[in-house]
Amino acid sequence: xxxxxxxxxxxxxxxxxxxxxxxxxxxxxxxxxxxxxxxxxxxxxxxxxxxxxxxxxxxxxxxxxxxxxxxxxxxxxxxxxxxxxxxxxxxxxxxxxxxxxxxxxxxxxxxxxxxxxxxxxxxxxxxxxxxxxxxxxxxxxxxxxxxxxxxxxxxxxxxxxxxxxxxxxxxxxxxxxxxxxxxxxxxxxxxxxxxxxxxxxxxxxxxxxxxxxxxxxxxxxxxxxxxxxxxxxxxxxxxxxxxxxxxxxxxxxxxxxxxxxxxxxxxxxxxxxxxxxxxxxxxxxxxxxxxxxxxxxxxxxxxxxxxxxxxxxxxxxxxxxxxxxxxxxxxxxxxxxxxxxxxxxxxxxxxxxxxxxxxxxxxxxxxxxxxxxxxxxxxxxxxxxxxxxxxxxxxxxxxxxxxxxxxxxxxxxxxxxxxxxxxxxxxxxxxxxxxxxxxxxxxxxxxxxxxxxxxxxxxxxxxxxxxxxxxxxxxxxxxxxxxxxxxxxxxxxxxxxxxxxxxxxxxxxxxxxxxxxxxxxxxxxxxxxxxxxxxxxxxxxxxxxxxxxxxxxxxxxxxxxxxxxxxxxxxxxxxxxxxxxxxxxxxxxxxxxxxxxxxxxxxxxxxxxxxxxxxxxxxxxxxxxxxxxxxxxxxxxxxxxxxxxxxxxxxxxxxxxxxxxxxxxxxxxxxxxxxxxxxxxxxxxxxxxxxxxxx
DNA sequence: TTTAGGG
DNA sequence: CCCTAAA
Length: 695
Prior knowledge:
alpha+beta, 2 domains
């Protein structure tokens, strides 16, 4: 490789619409997941789950748009809010890459409704009941959720806007990798354009935007209320308490970008606009709803590690001039589409929530997202969110009546500085991608919102707006919000698993890792004495790029060794002190293999081999029938057999995916029976001659 | 490494 | 497909 001159780009801040992305890379460790419990994750959990719904709903498409009434098992049905018309008339997907059976075999009678249970934290569950054939699924669900939340919270202070971005709805057929269309431009909708541009593998993503520092006052104590999130959504919803002031700036309307994707995701022409929404408070686990062709919620796509990122560092506030380091790291990523059950997806999201939680907040409740401690940037810091109070009339707010509200508008947040190093021979497209990756990496650690009042950081999250003076009109001019990265709080048990590339960070902040969680209060006044973590780039070997089997778009993929990216967000000392460590991830575990459904021919070969060799000799089966299929491991074959047996035992209506000939399934059953019998005999008495299934 | 199973 | 305990 010839040396290339590098160009360094400094970003004093990337302006993004005032919205946050919550889905984060999933973590598979159950141990980590266990740490995510209860209401801390209320918001994200809910949203993530909703997102799962949106995804899952795609296969519940049905031709009939009519709404069904009187669904079973519900106690509190009610009409959901009316949707805007434009949401009801979406073009169908131009291409429906999903299994064509998915629509057919899931259409239920009009009386059958799909009962969804939306988990909102650990204590609240919203049951969403909507008919299966009530039209554009994701949209309905979206409004179901909104409606449910509104009812559940008994207040409209909290608004949640959920957008679903089906980045790509492509299901790879067996043996054929599906190339996706080129990534959409990342423009016009802030971060919504995050795309998996590296290799254009099939993937799908969720953009859960939401929103609204509406009802902040309430959110302060919204332990049991639906999440109040942050949004710049200037579309239609106006919170009751906080007047949302429609932006007159040039900030892109996030809806626009999102809705388009939603269009693509709606898999039918249904024009149904009404639906049922049922809300209960049962705190039970979501049940598995048989579904199909549901992509795993790889919102994670967005959080995919940038292979080019060699360095990913954070520095602290300018005023402290302290440097801290993060490490580049792989981000759990998957583009696999699965047919997992709702429960599975739910679990997956729980994993997401782990990171979301750990990364985005270190204590407190999700509803307090809007009041999370921020970084100590100065008021004039360009990274500070622009607060527009021109249109607000805070004079009323300061009239200290108990119900006065504070009106403010967040025009945008500022993303902290990003430094990007890229060869000058790189294309603009790769530059875009690099920037995107930088932002992705930046966001990957989780987000926090900082509140600055007159240049001073408002640390006490428990104070009311009035107490802090935020309700005073004369101070609103100096009220700012910062979008700041948070680091994942590494659970103590996991810190020992850190790979070599974590060493530098470990060394720097190891002492902090021992701070017991209980001591990690939001108010981290004493953290100014935090040891400095000097940013160090990690060896390339520790960050082997993620290569995709179908790296179709590796246009100008600058090799990792030639493109370094340094993100230098002004990480607050607090954040580092509180959540100093990232969850270690072994690079080899980062990328999930692409899913490659077995073809009928493969199934045939597998069945034949198993018939011959039995069910306990998968290596032999592999050698015998799949020796040349590099991507099929004996574990795969074993798994496939397992699923085949399962498939053969369920009713044909329940089967999904490419249908396997019944004849093969019959053979599967007989072979399974035979060999399990043999195995039983083997246990009974010492092995004799090698049996063989006669067929 | 391979099996066997749960996830 | 992933993850792992066992073998």
